[in-house]
Design brief:
The complex is a heterodimer. By secondary structure, chain A is of the alpha/beta class. Chain A has helices spanning 16-26, 70-78, 88-95, 152-160, 213-225; strands at residues 4-9, 29-34, 45-48, 83-86, 102-104, 112-120, 136-143, 147-149, 164-168, 180-184, 190-193. The N and C termini of chain A lie close together (12 Å). Helix content of chain B is 28%, strand content 29%. Classes of the chains: A alpha/beta, B alpha+beta.
Chain lengths: 226, 87
């Protein structure tokens, strides 16, 4: 038996196929979910992938957040369903208030696309147990609206509770407060980050390393051992 | 028919890179003496029926949950008089 991991496609999603491929490479079974689906097809976890859902109109993720598929997702995520939001998926999770803070336009106003060095700060979430805390990884980063912001109280709380899951290293590519690249909820089942682990799962492409694969092997181990 | 206008602005403490870019372009265009620019969004809602307190309360909820992200943005709701369309 393997785990079934859903990948939601919204109008404007870009990385749904890459994400499905990464899930398959890790040994799990990807399940395509559509934004109009009213149920999650009994998947064991869900990935909200990158792209520009609804053209980033209003705010990135703001319209996708009210899609039919988000209703069961919100309910089940609060009950412990593992959810990973990558890039636009992270933006959708903050708009849905499953994760704190939000993303603004990159401080330099340019679209950015680069191999980014990160430090894994929390290796205990559902999506990061195959890393070690403090591990440095390289995965691609590509976005317009990647500047993580939250009020000082929220940031202090995130730091104190170990909920800053990933931090940019060497260079802050977008003005994110406290170099935050990704965060987790208190329970550790909902994780969001701007960089793209699904683009770093094969030596031939992306950063030429497979530093993103442990996201998908972590969740597989958790689900299969559950 | 009535129009309700919702203005959404980034909170004062939130950095506005787009507004800054506009501000930096001003001297180049010959506009001096403008020390800060902040960019926001204006929504014009054409409302069927009367804009009573209940309707305004619903629009307030809509603005709070959807039009603005209150993590980073403030909003105001106001009714705008619309001149009758000329037939």
């Amino acid at each position: 038996m393997t785990a079934r991991i859903g990948v939601v496609t919204f109008p404007g999603s870009l990385d749904d196929r890459d994400t499905q491929r990464a899930i398959r490479l890790a040994g799990a079974e990807p399940v395509a979910l559509w934004h109009k689906d009213k149920d999650l097809k009994q998947v064991d976890a869900v990935v909200l992938c990158g792209g520009f859902s609804y053209g980033d109109y209003l705010r990135a993720g703001a319209i996708a957040r009210f899609s039919p598929v988000m209703e069961p997702l919100l309910e089940q995520a609060k009950a412990g369903l593992p959810v990973l939001g990558i890039c636009n998926g992270f933006q959708i999770l903050t708009e849905a208030h499953l994760l704190p803070g939000t993303m603004l336009r990159n401080d330099h106003l340019h679209f950015i696309c680069r191999d980014q060095k990160l430090r894994v700060e929390n290796a205990e979430t559902a999506w990061t147990t195959d890393y070690t805390a403090g591990q440095e990884i390289h995965i691609p980063l590509k976005n317009n609206d990647g500047q993580y912001v939250a009020d000082a109280y929220t940031l202090d709380q995130l730091e104190a509770e170990g909920r800053v899951a990933f931090r940019y290293l060497d260079f802050n590519p977008n003005g994110s407060q406290r170099d935050i690249a990704g965060v987790t909820n208190a329970a550790g089942n909902v994780v969001g980050l701007m960089p793209h682990p699904e683009h770093a799962v094969e030596p031939l492409i992306g950063t030429g390393r497979t530093d993103g694969l442990p996201f998908f092997t972590s969740i597989l181990k958790k689900l299969v051992n559950a | 028919m009535a129009r309700v206008v919702v203005d959404v602005m980034l909170k004062p403490e939130i950095l506005d890179p787009q507004g800054q870019a506009v501000q930096r372009a001003l001297p180049r265009l010959g506009f001096d003496g403008i020390s800060d620019v902040r960019q926001g969004k204006r929504f014009e809602l054409e409302v069927d029926g009367p804009v009573d307190e209940a309707a305004l309360a619903r629009i307030h909820d809509l603005a709070e949950s959807f039009l603005a992200n209150t993590v980073i943005e403030d909003f105001t709701v106001r009714v705008e008089e619309v001149a009758e369309a000329v037939k």
